[in-house]
Amino acid sequence: MTLTTSFPKRDIRVLLLEGISQTAVDAFRAAGYSSIEVHDKSLPEAELARAIADAHLIGIRSRTQLDAEVLAQARRLIAVGCFCIGTNQVDLQAAELAGIPVFNAPYSNTRSVAELVIAEAILLMRGVPRRNAECHRGGWSKSAAGSHEVRGKTIGIVGYGHIGTQVGVLAEALGMQVLFHDVEAKLSLGNARAAASLQDLLAHSDIVSLHVPETPATQGMFGAAEIAAMKPGAHLINASRGTVVDIDALAAALRDGRVGGAAVDVFPVEPKGRDETFESPLRGLDNVILTPHVGGSTLEAQDNIGVEVAAKLVRYSDNGSTLSAVNFPEVALPGHEGSLRILHIHRNVPGVLSRANDLFREHGINIDGQFLRTDSHVGYVVIDISATVEQAHDLRSALAGIPGTLRTRVLY
Ligand SMILES: NC(=O)c1ccc[n+]([C@@H]2O[C@H](COP(=O)([O-])OP(=O)(O)OC[C@H]3O[C@@H](n4cnc5c(N)ncnc54)[C@H](O)[C@@H]3O)[C@@H](O)[C@H]2O)c1
Ligand SMILES: O=C(O)CC[C@@H](O)C(=O)O
């Protein structure tokens, strides 16, 4: 079924979940959006289904699952903003096939994660988690046993992308050796060296830090075999995604001392909010630092993310530009002062464009500019026209009738 979303911006409803920064609200207001519903946590399924049915723009973080079923309820949705780096919580293909671009903030919390990882590397190498726990119980194990400087030690970075490279640069500044493993060929920064293989990295690292995205290939990639391949007593840091590590195998290796310590920020199952109990086999282990998925949660990062993702949603909503969308043909558009702009999103099947051009001719409408991008699933065509609002709406209705049309919209 073809969905239409042509109306003035003041009627566009923005739904922001999971405590997105006030900077996002301010950015929407400054751009003239007044209908903004804000929630400080994710919504239970039934409530999400109700809220998303009325929303034109939705902002989420890592908790809210936008699967195909939820997206099917989102009859009015124009675009999704992930106010974070990861986009694995959204069914990106289902969104694309519904004509909905998804945006994120690919760099805004990179530094925050890297700083936390470096701090954890130092704390683990000094045995601070265990000493901290003992002091809390009244113990006083004043000893250098098992306590090391990070200088001269090797950190093995799995996933040498934005965060992995930052961790490497900071680690080198502390005098560490940096080894990395990635599925892509990567330019090494500083003196970092690509390991011959993951096994090679595991065999030579005092600390292993995971920075891969959640994909079918990374789910469960760090299991009992990888843990067994680590240097005896080495430490593991996971601030990537909880599904990457076999948490039971890690708990067993931490209990028997095979792994010296761990810092874990992300979990296969995470509580939906503050009122839900955090359950994990890692709870109660003295040699583990547990944090509630806060690697990217600094005020600096969250404020920047609020500005960045809100700007991308506003730009798409006001102007049609899909630049930097993660699931959609990218079209960078100029302003359209003096013209009305029609957006036509369609399945990438033969004949749609020629039918659209026929309609322009039949309606006697002059085209000022035309922009087109396609990928294997979807075509996105943007047409600037000199016409009255009524003519544009007549034309939009006709375009919406073209078989394969997913969404149409007029921008004033
Ligand atoms: N804990 C947090 O709060 C937090 C914050 C930000 C990001 N993250 C997570 O960290 C992940 C990484 O972020 P980024 O910005 O560095 O992403 P990125 O895309 O820049 O880097 C990921 C790297 O992993 C590599 N990779 C992919 N699959 C791999 C595999 N099977 N083996 C080895 N390498 C593989 C990629 O080639 C890429 O170089 C995000 O996807 C997100 O899930 C967590
Ligand atoms: O803010 C969040 O919920 C997610 C943070 C992090 O995992 C990300 O993907 O950016």
UniProtKB/TrEMBL annotation:
Its EC number is 1.1.1.399, 1.1.1.95. GO terms for biological process: L-serine biosynthetic process. Residues 341-412 form the ACT domain. It holds the Pfam family ACT_AHAS_ss. NCBIfam families: PRK11790.1 (NF008759). PANTHER family: D-ISOMER SPECIFIC 2-HYDROXYACID DEHYDROGENASE FAMILY PROTEIN (AFU_ORTHOLOGUE AFUA_6G10090). Belongs to the D-isomer specific 2-hydroxyacid dehydrogenase family. This is D-3-phosphoglycerate dehydrogenase. It comes from Luteimonas salinisoli.
